[in-house]
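Let us work through a complete example step by step.
Step 1: write down the sequence.
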Amino acid sequence: MIPLSPNDTFRFSCSENIPCFNECCRDLNQFLTPYDILRLKNRLGISSDIFLDRHTVQHTGPESGLPVVVFKTDDASELKCPFVTPSGCSVYEDRPSSCRTYPLFRVVSRSRETGRMTEQHVLVKEAHCLGFEQGHVQTVREWTENQGIAIYNEINDLLMEIISLKNQFRPGSLDMKSRHIFHIACYDLDAFRTHIFKKGGLDDLDMDADISEAAKNDDTALLRLSLEWLKQTLFKS
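Step 2: predict the structure and record it as tokens.
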């Protein structure tokens, strides 16, 4: 694992022409962020609850005490990603952020004193991967731009803020009602839309009117709204 700055360079490329193709899509424990789920369920043209039921399992993070969603895999298929095929990823344009970032690993920390977020990248060289012998040399900044990671990072950082609040104000495991609230706001966006627009879930909360209006038809705006709603509802921030 090699720390890299935004202007440091590395060589990497992946294609079906190299012997290790698809190896990184097996023996999987793939965590999914709220924005990962948004992109994948829209890619498949199904509702968030159906996506979660068909393709994921949920457990409680041992450190955060928060609900965590991971891909559902088949033991008989060597824990392969449910969307990997012999020709590669079947949802490539909407693949999760960790897949986009690979072979980099993004580390984000938040200052308790200032609230400022800082990010670092680490280059992960795994023994099975031959991608480091392929492609052209590029900077970390160029890689993240080319892989379309910016929007994923932006939304993921909003979640990081919530995790920070949780650690500060509600350490330990959440009660059942709070876990359900977190699950709906982060992962089951279609249920959240029904909750706020048909059941008055925004009443008495200080929410931006423009974002609330955009959220009626735009899932990314809805996710931004849901994370702000979660802060105000669960952590009174």
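Step 3: interpret the result. Residues 2-148 form one domain.
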